[in-house]
From TrEMBL:
Lineage: superkingdom: Bacteria
Alphabetical list of SUPFAM superfamilies matching this protein: Thiamin phosphate synthase
Positions of the Thiamine phosphate synthase/TenI domain: 25-134
InterPro entries according to UniProt: Aldolase_TIM, ThiamineP_synth_sf, ThiamineP_synth_TenI
Protein name: Thiamine phosphate synthase
Family annotation (Pfam families): TMP-TENI
GO BP annotations, alphabetical order: thiamine biosynthetic process
């Protein structure tokens, strides 16, 4: 079973580092979804790793350049981002994942040989106010 957590869409700070280090043994990975620019996120990530959080559990959201700069081989993309397929073709050893919102997109991601998908959303969310949560039928 995979347990992937996603950071809140905020500027990450020391509290987030402490919290991730506390839950690290119980999770498979963390997707860093934040408005921070590359430089600020890189500095924060260096601190996270210095606190003992394993690089293997860090999943960079979209920023392939940052992932390469820090030798992080886990990258997550939003639904339909064609860079996911390109990255998987160029760096087949990378773990590349994508958010999906339909069974068709799950099938597409599988056909593109992505490593896993996040299928959602299951609860109402402010990030997708016009999109209702997935139904039980869709999840099944």
């Amino acid at each position: 079973t995979m347990m992937i957590v996603v950071t809140p869409y905020v500027v990450l700070d020391d509290w987030h580092i402490k919290r991730l280090c506390v839950i690290e043994s119980q999770i498979t990975g963390v997707i860093l979804r934040t408005p921070m620019n590359r430089h600020a996120l890189k500095q924060w990530l260096i601190q996270l790793l210095a606190n003992g959080f394993p690089k293997s559990k860090v999943i960079i959201h979209t920023d392939v350049t940052l992932a390469m700069e820090l030798s992080i081989s886990n990258v997550h993309f939003k639904e339909g981002d064609h860079r996911a397929t390109l990255l998987k073709q160029v760096q087949p050893h990378y773990q590349v994942s994508m958010s999906t919102h339909s069974a068709a997109m799950v099938r597409d991601a599988k056909a593109q040989q992505l490593d896993f998908v996040l299928f959602g959303h299951l609860f109402p969310t402010s990030s997708k106010p016009d999109l209702p949560p997935r139904t039980q039928l869709e999840v099944d």
